[in-house]
Amino acid sequence: MVNSQEYFINLALEKAWAYQGLTYPNPPVGAVITDNQNNFISYGVHKKAGTPHAEVNAIKQAFYNITKDEEILKLESSNEIHDYLHAKHKGIFEDKNIYVTLEPCNHFGKTPPCSQLIAKLGFNRIVIGALDTNRKASGGFEYLKKNGLHVEVLDQYTCKELLEPFSTWQKEPFVFFKLAMSNNGVIDGGVITCKKSHELVHKLRDRCDLLVIGGNTVRIDRPILDARLCDGKAPDILIYSKSKEFDKDIPLFNMPNRKVFIAANFDKVKEYKFVMIEGGEGMLKATKSLTKHYLIFRSPNFKEGNSPQFSHKLKELYSSIVGEDRLTWFKQLDG
What pLDDT does 333 receive? Predict the structure, then answer.
């Protein structure tokens, strides 16, 4: 039987996973607020670096749900929301609980510290899924304790799995493989997934530093590999190929503010922090030792063609519906 702590942390995790990679260079975070009888009030997620954190979004929505004060819904910046809540909260959060997947930040960056806002509002109980390994932002747990609040740390493994990409790109490249397949596992033969999936891939390209793709794919598909569906930036490109002969009229070579590398190895990956690989079975085999995470979009449609054979075991981390497709994050298991 799942207790209330696990239930609400898992709910916060589910909401946060939907933004995995999109918050780079920040971590994805989810937060849930309940009353003292653990009735759900609101949730919030961190959506993009520089925008309000998960706790702030959850508190903002909870404030509206409780007070029906529409003025707070008009506020977009963290500073505005913090200031408004400081002035208007009237103690309504003193019998409320907040569940958050990551220790509330304790420093002034692009946004004010979440720990100070939570302390100011006087929450009855704060439950933290995992402590922050980033020294710059950590310290929220101790700050809240020193201010007399009841704080619990679950040190939950699933919260650490959510944070693994963030923890990795703090010190070395985080590399993941994006793959689109039909319902019967076919990965070739043109467009496979729906527009919503394409839009999400473009949002991830906008966040990535580097995109890796195979030479044959470039020659056959003649792609542009940009982020036009979200009006985002085009990442740098590494074309994995033994031959450096390419038609330079292929659109990917003609994007402004982009570097394109051609190499028969993956050494260039070491110079980047957030790297996405796109390709088929050949790239899957070539990059097996390079990546442990896979993002697979599976269409509900069936196709004729080749199905890739994974030579390693994968653990499912998160799954959801995107348009007509199913999105799933997997992690390669050691051994």
Answer: 86
CB-CB contact of 283 with 215 (8 Å) = no
pLDDT at residue 1, as a whole number: 39
Q: Work out the angle between the directed axes of helices 78-88 and 54-67 (0-180°, nearest 10).
A: 40
- Which of residues 169, 197, 224 is at a domain's end? 169
Please pick, among 14, 55, 103, 278, the residue that the annotation labels catalytic: 55
Q: Which two structure tokens, joined as six digits, stand for 333?
A: 């298991």
Question: What per-residue confidence (pLDDT) applies to 306?
Answer: 79
CA distance 168 to 188: 31
Are 280 and 305 spatial neighbours (Cβ–Cβ below 8 Å)? no
Q: Using one digit for the tens of pLDDT, what is the confidence trace for 237-249? A: 999 999 999 999 9
- Asked if 242 and 109 sit in the same domain, the reply is no
Domain that holds residue 125: 4-169
Domain limit, last residue, from 152, 169, 186? 169
Q: What integer pLDDT is reported at residue 311 of this predicted model?
A: 67
Task: Give the position of tokens 């780079």.
Answer: 24
CATH number at residue 144: 3.40.140.10
Segments of the chain with pLDDT less than 70: 1-2, 137, 311, 335
Q: Same domain, yes or no, for 140 and 202?
A: no
Residues 259 and 151 in one domain: no
Judge whether 199 counts as a catalytic residue: no
